TrEMBL record, chains A, B:
Protein name according to UniProt: Sugar phosphate isomerase/epimerase
The UniProt record lists the keyword Isomerase: yes
InterPro entries: IolE/XylAMocC-like (IPR050312), Xyl_isomerase-like_sf (IPR036237), Xyl_isomerase-like_TIM-brl (IPR013022)
Top-level taxon in the UniProt lineage: Bacteria
Stretches of the chain forming a coiled coil according to its record: none
Source organism of the structure: Alkalicoccobacillus porphyridii
UniProt keyword list: Isomerase
GO molecular-function terms, A-Z: isomerase activity
Xylose isomerase-like TIM barrel domain: residues covered: 40-255
Length: 273, 273
């Protein structure tokens, strides 16, 4: 597994082709021979579960993960319970889509107490583990880059995600490693090794200077500074052999025809991942 | 030291009033009773060392630090040597300004090998320690937020800076803790405690959502999500009792009259730090 990445593992995270509906994205994967797709819940809601399941079955495209559960911290118990219920719906959806992984973006703090918010994340995940187990769904804790600590997730390093996995002692919980979020981390190599056996996903994109937008600032593989090939080898050495998702929020890519994006994505994947 | 921060420790990092010359900034501190200033080298070069030293002496304003040395990684040994020589000039300037601290912004990687770049940082600091000792200057390693790992510094956590301090075993080397860069870190509390005895500076500003610009995205204390008061208490509990610098790159603040900014800075410092 040390050479070129295999196209059989390539997955389109559908936010990479944000202007496509889910139906268009499934067709696009089929047309461009991308065997996997990662589905976002708002796109799923637009298309409908039944239509999606049928379309996937007819196309042969497999679902690498559902994006996303999480968003656990909130200032009241009532609101935190609502979030937990929503995560249960996400688990049901993941099961219906026949994927095994629900990606968790754990959520920001409602106030200045980030330590408390992290406890709420811990409690929130704990609350949904039995439901995930019943439905055969694994919960992938995705650490987000520290620049999203205030508005998207208080889980910001792989080390932190690993600690949660260790805390639960449950096969239902693992980590999702996204290169854009973790590439900078001086502890990364050892944290990938620590994650052995619990890696549920590997996402790729690139970090190009300057980052012109906090959310839509990601770039196509090869356009930035991340050693994606090296990171893939580390992740594989730690035992992960599953799908590799390309997840890129980038306005310029969104403005291009989806088929062009998928072709470019395949080329860059082979060259840089 | 658990109540309000003391104004006697307040320092204007002069980038907070970027539109002021160094001469204007010293006058501004005197007029607004801000007892300390942190000086940037390009502003010092514009004004002149002799003029600056005389002006500081006449005003009674003390220099909390010189910004900045560092920028060690480069792809050739020749270029790395040039950077080291430039750091020696910075050490000389710090000594002439009668400050004891040179802040190190360690620099980005010239390529995709961030691990190698980190070794060059380690070597670069090691090379200037004897010179710093001769001149009575301490080297403050300032970890920068991971969102600057690609373009400003490959030292991105306080834990990493602490490891360097431990490696050198030299009283000449310590850390500078900037709230904006480290607030998100799940290891922060213990890393501040680990830094006991080697904390050379404490910088404050705030993280307001959304961050509209990667460089100029900082906000005035109280406008964002950082628990500055809690962090000051942690830093003090770890033994630091020196100046507290307000360092804010923010276009809106730069566009306001400097005296207004200094008055606001004093109010917010008393309320939130």
């Amino acid at each position: 597994m040390s050479g070129q990445a295999e196209l059989s593992r390539l997955s389109l995270n559908q936010i990479t082709t944000e202007n496509w509906s889910l139906s268009e994205a499934i067709d696009g994967c089929e047309r461009n021979e991308v065997p996997w797709i990662s589905i976002w819940r708002h796109k799923l809601a637009e298309y409908g579960m039944k239509e999606t399941v049928t379309h996937l079955k007819n196309s042969g495209i497999k679902v690498s993960s559902l994006c996303r559960g999480g968003m656990f911290p909130a200032s009241t118990q009532e609101e935190r319970n609502i979030r937990i219920e929503d995560n249960k719906r996400a688990i049901e959806e993941a099961a219906e889509l026949n994927t095994d992984t629900l990606v968790l973006v754990c959520g920001p703090s409602p106030d200045k107490d980030i330590t408390q918010a992290r406890k709420w994340v811990q409690e929130g995940i704990e609350a949904i583990i039995p439901y995930a187990e019943q439905h055969g769904i694994k919960l992938g804790i995705e650490p987000l880059h520290p620049m999203y600590a205030a508005d998207r997730s208080v889980i910001n390093t792989l080390g932190q995600a690993n600690s949660l996995v260790k805390y639960y002692q449950s096969e239902q919980v693992g980590v999702v490693i996204d290169a854009f979020h973790v590439w900078w981390d001086p502890q990364l190599a050892q944290d990938i090794e620590t994650a052995r056996g619990s890696i549920l996903g590997f996402h790729v994109s690139d970090w190009k200077v300057p980052i012109y937008d906090m959310f839509k600032g990601r770039s196509m593989m090869g356009d930035g500074v991340i050693d994606l090939h090296g990171m893939r080898k580390q992740v594989e050495a730690a035992g992960y052999a599953g799908p590799i998702e390309v997840e890129i929020m980038n306005q310029e890519l969104w403005d291009r025809p989806g088929d062009e994006v998928l072709q470019l994505m395949k080329e860059r994947y082979l060259e840089h991942v």
